[in-house]
Amino acid sequence: MPTVLVIAARDDWPTDRVVKTLDERGATVFRMDAAEFPEEAGLAARIDDSHGWAGGVVTSHRELDLADVSACYFRTPHPFRFAEGMSDAERRFAAAQARAGFGGILTALDCRWVSHPSAMSRAEYKPYQLAAARECGLTLPPTLITNRPDAVQAFAGDIPGTIICKPVASPVFIEGDQLKAVYTRVLTEDDLGDLTGMETTAHLFQAWVDKAYEVRLTMAGDRPFAAEVHSDTKAGYTDWRSDYKSLTYKPTAPPPDVIERVRALMHRLELRFGALDFVVSPAGEWTFLEVNPCGQWDWIQHATGHPIAEGIADELLGVTE
Amino acid sequence: MIPVAHPREAFPLSPEGGRIPHSSEQPSGPDTRPWVLRFAVLPDSARATALPPALYDEDRQISVGVDTDLLPYMQTHSPTIPDGSPANPPPLDEGPKD
Lengths: 321, 98
Ligand SMILES: Nc1ncnc2c1ncn2[C@@H]1O[C@H](COP(=O)(O)OP(=O)(O)OP(=O)(O)O)[C@@H](O)[C@H]1O
Ligand SMILES: [Mg+2]
Hints:
The structure holds two protein chains of two kinds. Chain A is built from ten helices and 18 strands. By secondary structure, chain A is of the alpha+beta class. In chain A, the strands form five sheets. A five-stranded antiparallel β-sheet of chain A has the order 16-15-14-17-18. A four-stranded parallel β-sheet of chain A has the order 2-1-6-7, covered by helices on one side. The longest helix of chain A has 20 residues, at about 90-105. Chain B has a domain at about 45-90. Helices cover about 5% and strands about 10% of the residues of chain B. Chain B has a two-stranded antiparallel sheet with strand order 1-2. Chain B is elongated and about 55 Å long. Mean pLDDT of chain B is about 70; it is low at about 90-98. Classes of the chains: A alpha+beta, B little secondary structure. At the A-B interface, helix 1, helix 2, helix 3, strand 10 and strand 11 of A face loops of B. The structure holds adenosine-5'-triphosphate and magnesium ion. Magnesium ion (MG) binds near residues 277 and 290 of chain A. Chain B: It comes from Streptomyces kasugaensis.
């Protein structure tokens, strides 16, 4: 029986919405978290000259035959969990074996993926996304990545307006037992006057894009679900993630050429789900900022009524409009 | 065999010990601290969303509420906002990144 395999953290509640939708459509779902392997889930699979990988996964509640998997939904599962008594060295060894063994068997599945984990990892890199978006004809802000103060000064001189700085990778970290975040910073003359520490690592600078509002465009397969994001505070206007409380949302329809280019981008990145950020200028031009291969979407569904969970379920079931 | 890439990349999982590695260390000096970190802020904990208690239902394969028929996913729709507590890190929009 065709089965949708869901590999996700158990406490990822938006995944519940997808599971429930699949269930209501009569699909068979096998949900598991990587944390269940190896203690609560058994794996056995064989390959030889006459057959590809055959076998399955069994838990105390259900059994999965790899041959039945028609689609797989992948959503940051928790790490594998090993026996309490293991030493650190054993645990590291076991984790690498589990990734290559359990992860290797699953990622070898030739089925519909939303999205394939390797594609998701690759697409996490902002420089790669920007290059791909440009190739697909999307408009992007002039961008500099550097650890050289002189390159920052030169960039600031070349850009007619304001420039911003934002992290190239994860913006959150824990230091001094406190969680901290680095949001998008509109740079002042003073900021640019002291570039001590620039050499320590890669930094991303970008031209500030003149902003009427922003758009979060969620793609489920080829289907676009776009929401205008408006903010009435300075913090929210600069970086909407810094002031969620100030935000209002409105469903919108992207211009057809933007949709075409976004579909091309998704195709190029081999993603079947993505949460994209755009800035829309007062003149109505759309500028691409980024695509999140594993972006949150549930609050957009709630705020706009866009049937995103249904869109993801359609994609998993191979339903096309 | 010396792997060329971290094997997590082909099968991304949230990192061991939580999404964001914990540290008690204080900032180093200006010469060694990444420049952009001078703009780091503590997110406002007043904005954090309290999550309703939930249990995982093995049969339905979703989380269910405690003392209520409402399913947990129907009760929270806010984006997970960083509340400054290292015990409650946000997913933000990140996927499996370093
Ligand atoms: N060039 C820019 N011009 C205007 N606003 C910007 C620009 N770059 C970023 N922003 C603002 O900052 C927000 C965050 O930037 P962006 O989406 O590029 O990265 P990010 O969300 O930090 O990435 P990540 O997914 O790694 O957390 C945007 O949604 C937007 O509000
Ligand atoms: Mg973003």
